[in-house]
Amino acid sequence: MRLARLRTAGGIRPVLLDAAGIPRDLTGHVADIGHATLLPEGLAALRRLDPAGLPALPVEGSFAPPVSGIGKIIGVGLNYRAHAAECGLPLPKEPTLFLKPASALAGAMDPVILPPDASALDWEVELGVVIGRPGAYIAPGDAAGHIAGYVLGIDFSERVFQFDRGGQGFKGKSSDSFAPLGPWFLDAAAVPDPQGLRLTLSVNGTLRQDGTTADMIFSVVELVATISRFMSLQPGDVILSGTPAGVGMGQVPPTYLMPGDVVVAEAGPLGRQSHVVTPYAG
User: Fold this and answer.
1) Structure pTM?
2) Where are the domains of the chain?
3) Mind listing the pLDDT tens digit for each residue in 30-71?
4) What is the CATH number of domain 73-279?
């Protein structure tokens, strides 16, 4: 089941995408794709709907982030073996975590905004894990039951901000537009093996990242269980689970994004994103 939030002339509408990709209006059933929708009972109710019985909507606008009311975006660093190798760093013994603010959220076709003093804007395609059932101190064997579904994400990072501005790495992760999600949310029932997804990212048509979630050091369920030891997880929280090899700072020489560059990310059933690098205009 694919759920999305479509920007229309009348505002953002929650939609279910049918097998043909036609947006079907859910406003008669849910106010938004938010916390209540992501609970197991909320998703179960939507699965019982017949898409053919829902009003079809024209795609007259772009997709907003597919989940509303996201409280936390939890990033995971160095979670792919090949990415750790390209950075010349040892494999972590437990997940490396950081937070991205909700103000960094963007849609799947929105521009990525280049901050005025940025000089090293980098890309990182990621699998986003969306929490459905709340919990803390979750046992690994129970972690899958707390996952509502998955989204495609990109963790845009300004490397100078991240590494050279006072030792607080989240400075390079937090600018507006640095956390695009979507285009849609895919419920966990449609992803029987989250460790079997291919992630790719290209810049101006050149493939830069091509990896699979099988290369993760810590699996999706391990991440959910571990993160819940340090903070409670709530419906709508998103875990960006790490990136494969091929980031800009791993190129020889390092290569970063410039105004006008086009970044395209794909992840099979999770869809496709496309972003034009656009200088901040005030």
Assistant:
1) 0.97
2) 2-63, 73-279
3) 999 999 999 999 999 999 999 999 999 987 779 999 999 999
4) 3.90.850.10
